[in-house]
Amino acid sequence: EVQLVESGGGLVQAGGSLRLSCAASGFAFDDYAIGWFRQAPGKEREGVSCISGIDGDTYYVDSVKGRFTISSDNAKNTVYLQMDSLKPEDTGVYYCVAGEAVGSMWYVLEYGMEFWGKGTLVTVSS
After folding, report:
1. Which of 111, 123, 3 minimizes the C-alpha distance to 47?
2. Which of 17, 41, 83, 93 is the most exposed place for a label (fewest CB within 10 A)?
């Protein structure tokens, strides 16, 4: 059974930091890309970042470049999203996602995600 379990969400002031974790199981972690979507209240889900388990290639949506860092620990089957300089517009439910690492990380994030976690809430206060 595939499982993606997110943790690390919470309430933080603007300018602060949070680190999200996604523990994965039930599939070949090294052959997959793991990423993050987020959904703000009243808005569509947005792909935020993605990392390849094969070669570590990464992708970030423009709005988080320079502030968020995605990394993976293949030995622990865990992906992290370090979020710094948080803004109120970063508020939302963050979902861990996984799909086969075929193609660019942008493509996999947009079109190739097969599995979804239940999400963790991030709230950034102004």
Report:
1. 111
2. 41
**Beta strands per DSSP E along the chain:** 3-7, 10-13, 18-25, 32-39, 46-52, 58-60, 68-73, 78-83, 92-100, 115-116, 120-125
Using CB atoms within 10 Å of the CB of residue 13, give its burial: 0 to 12 exposed, 13 to 18 middle, 19+ buried: exposed
Q: Mean per-residue pLDDT for 14-29?
A: 96
Q: Residues 71-80: contacts with CB within 8 Å, 24+ apart?
A: 72/34, 74/29, 74/30, 76/23, 77/23, 77/24, 77/25, 77/29, 78/21, 78/22, 78/23, 78/24, 79/21, 79/22, 79/24, 79/34, 79/35, 79/51, 80/19, 80/20, 80/21, 80/22
CA distances from 14 to 21, 69, 70 (A): 20, 17, 20
* pLDDT computed for residue 111 by the predictor: 92
Joined together, the tokens standing for residue 80 give 């992290």
